Amino acid sequence: MAIVSIKTQQVTFYDGDGWILRAPVSTGTKGRETPAGVFAVLEKDVDHHSSLYDDASMPHMQRLTWNGIALHGGPLPGYAASHGCVRMPFGFAEKLFDKTRIGMRVIISPDDAAPVEFSHAALFMPNSEAVAAAPARAEKLAREAAEAAMTADETKKAAAASARETASLRASLRKLETLKTRADAELAHAEKALAAAKTDQAKAHAEDLRLKASTKAAEAGTQLDTARTDAKSKLDAAAGATDAAKAAEKRKADAAKAASEAKLALEPVSVYISRATQKLYVRRNTHKPWADGGEVFDSTIEVPVTIRNPDKPIGTHVFTAMARNGAGLRWAAVTIDHGDDAKAALDRITIPQDVLDRIAPTALPRSSIIVSDEPLSHETNYRTEFVAVLNNRPQGGFVTRRPTAAVASGNSWGDVFDFFGNNQGNTRQRGSRYDRQEQQGWWW
Hints:
2 domains, alpha+beta, L,D-transpeptidase catalytic domain-like, six-stranded mixed sheet, seven-stranded mixed sheet, disordered C terminus
């Protein structure tokens, strides 16, 4: 997890034990302010060039929105000077690049913010047996989905072959039905002529025609009945093949859905609860690459949620499962926009039980619950996790996307933040895992 402070122009990275890296940054200048809010890394490009600003170099870019907001290496003049992105020291951005992953939480706070240890009954409590069984279950359901897809394909081909075979048979039946209809019409006409005949000669002639028409109609009926009897088994088989194909297709869809959900259960889950929309949204990374960049996020769960006193501000709070804690999870809370405090915010929310049943048993570290007054930003789409911006803060980095004059290069912050070399007095030890000396190892 990364937290950017616009106020102090610095970024801090955290693992499950506390902060591990910190560096100065340069956020958006006036009129092009970096939007404050909740983001996640969507795409990474080691040698990115801007499509908006004269092909400007944005080395070690880690995209936060598809509208151009990103973390990347850049010059740090000692103040906010970017077009909306978050510039980091070049060397810091380079060494950081391979240690992050798609989906890493990035919080951009207008003021200083830091995670604090937090517990609450509303936070996910995984089932250790479900977590342990999840990988094997995902493999099993994936195999079943593959088998169901193969069966559906085979039954579809069989139904198509049966349909082709019966097509000529149906055409023959239609021809015989037409002949029978004509023969019946000729018989009816002959019977009318016989009834209308006045003379013996006319009656004899009409009777002869009636007998011939009757014989013809009887033969047509016999041929049609025989053909229908002969065709019945084949037509029934074709209908059965069609029904089997439909049933197999449904089993395929059901198996694919079950396999997808089982695979998603292996991923951290992110939940967004919006007071503005009174809805709960769930997103998980499918890791399916998209042709235009990034990866596709699953967003199949979107349900109404109950928030007590819905007209009262609730603030913006990010609850993150930082690490395992025995059979459960250890959570931390970050607040970047005050309404209620974090506990009071969760106290007001009732998450639907069916949603909890689907996602809580297999919740993993890096799972999160975001509670906010804000609706999801228009930047949220199928290639993003959640993008939520604070609408009471400037968003010029979204609104104005034009180049400005070049800013000073270099890093006027000095070496105080040299975390890849010698620490220059930036360690703090006050007893909390979130406020301590630099740690070895990474957690994302």
